[in-house]
């Protein structure tokens, strides 16, 4: 059985090494995406004008009035003092062509006191320019910047499948790391004084053993981050009943009389304020999101600057049919079945934010470790591959000599 597991571990490791190396390093960096982005691009984070902020809906109206080609799809509803209001936008349809306007940006930074756009960028663009660097790394982490072809997201699926292979390979690696009960101590040791191949081997085997639990969590949550609907939710639902997700409620969200105009932002926020009281949500309304694909709105509840959900299971969200204003779903941390709470925990665990600052430090360290395990694994494979080839060559040479003598 062990030879089979060794072969499986070898080929699963080789197949996923490059992907895990990239994901590990980018994950270590994007654990601090907001902070690094602010250092690189202060104009995107720090408002130029001191003074009281305009009402959030007024800011959105001014943005859309300044460039009628776009509509605001994400907007904060509260602002940190001295900070910009970061909004997402999308192009409207050009009535002359029925095609979207050609707009060179999808994210803007707005001065809350004046409503003036002071910076803009195309979030996720394939660019290493300072303004684009952190979004570039973030998207690289979970899609490798691979395209969507015919509605199929190649990058998201690829990284999700790598996560599945990594998850099973983690179990195989643990079994192989303990070849015997008597020699278990060796599986935790590092032969630092010997150096060379011995240390490389220990860094791979023992290093993986010491942080095995964390690696398993990262592998599992990487599946959830990329393949929640097609893979993770169906599996979890086998053990615990899940509340309908936003995607599960897609038809309800879309449902509405043909031709009925969208509800206004003011109407949605009024409904959210009412429903927040009924749900006993204590945090203020923090953001308003519009999903054109579903003709739906989402309202998040968090204090200014807490949009990432810095501690615990994240922020609460309520979702609304964009035409009728009917409540079409919710995600409230800590509520629901055991399966619901498990799914709520996936992003906080993957990002480390479930444990606050310390969790993010740990996730960065694990990301670097994943990259190191990928490199050491390849080094071990290449060395053993070279040794096998030399051994085969020597065997062929001996056979050839034997034949010549006869």
TrEMBL record:
This is PepSY-associated TM helix domain-containing protein. The chain crosses the membrane at residues 12-32, 154-178, 209-228, 361-382. It comes from Caballeronia hypogeia. InterPro entries: PepSY-ass_TM. Pfam families: PepSY_TM (PF03929). Keywords: Membrane, Transmembrane, Transmembrane helix.
């Amino acid at each position: 059985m062990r030879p089979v597991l060794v072969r499986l571990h070898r080929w699963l490791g080789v197949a996923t090494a490059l992907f895990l190396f990239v994901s590990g390093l980018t994950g270590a960096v994007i654990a601090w995406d907001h902070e690094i982005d602010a250092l690189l691009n202060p104009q995107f984070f720090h408002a130029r004008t001191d003074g009281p902020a305009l009402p959030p809906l007024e800011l959105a109206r001014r943005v859309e009035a300044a460039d009628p080609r776009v509509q605001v799809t994400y907007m904060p509803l509260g602002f940190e003092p001295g900070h910009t209001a970061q909004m997402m936008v999308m192009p409207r349809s050009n009535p002359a062509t029925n095609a979207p306007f050609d707009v060179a940006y999808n994210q803007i930074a707005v001065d809350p006191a004046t409503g003036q756009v002071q910076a803009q960028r195309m979030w996720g663009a394939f660019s290493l320019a300072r303004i684009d660097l952190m979004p570039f790394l973030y998207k690289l982490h979970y899609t490798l910047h691979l395209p969507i072809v015919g509605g199929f997201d190649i990058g998201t699926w690829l990284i999700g499948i790598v996560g599945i292979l990594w998850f099973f390979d983690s179990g195989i690696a643990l079994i192989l790391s303990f070849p015997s009960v008597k020699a278990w101590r060796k599986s935790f040791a590092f032969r630092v004084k010997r150096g060379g191949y011995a240390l490389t081997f220990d860094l791979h085997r023992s290093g993986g053993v010491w942080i095995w639990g964390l690696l398993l969590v990262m592998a599992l949550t990487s599946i959830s981050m990329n393949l929640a609907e097609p893979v993770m939710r169906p599996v979890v639902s086998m053990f615990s009943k899940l509340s309908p997700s936003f995607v599960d409620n897609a038809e309800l969200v879309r449902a509405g009389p043909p031709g009925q105009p969208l509800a206004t932002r003011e109407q949605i926020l009024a409904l959210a304020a009412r429903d927040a009281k009924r749900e006993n949500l204590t945090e203020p309304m923090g953001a308003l999101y519009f999903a054109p694909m579903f003709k739906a709105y989402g309202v998040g509840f968090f204090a200014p600057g807490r949009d990432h959900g810095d501690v615990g299971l994240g922020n609460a969200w309520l979702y609304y049919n964009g035409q009728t204003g009917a409540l079409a779903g919710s995600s409230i941390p800590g509520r629901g079945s055991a399966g619901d709470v498990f799914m709520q925990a996936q992003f906080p665990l993957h990002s480390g934010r479930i444990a606050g600052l310390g969790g993010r430090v740990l996730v960065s360290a694990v990301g670097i470790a994943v990259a190191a395990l990928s490199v050491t694994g390849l080094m071990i494979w290449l060395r053993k591959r070279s040794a096998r080839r030399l051994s085969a060559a020597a065997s062929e040479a001996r056979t050839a000599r034997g034949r010549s003598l006869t």
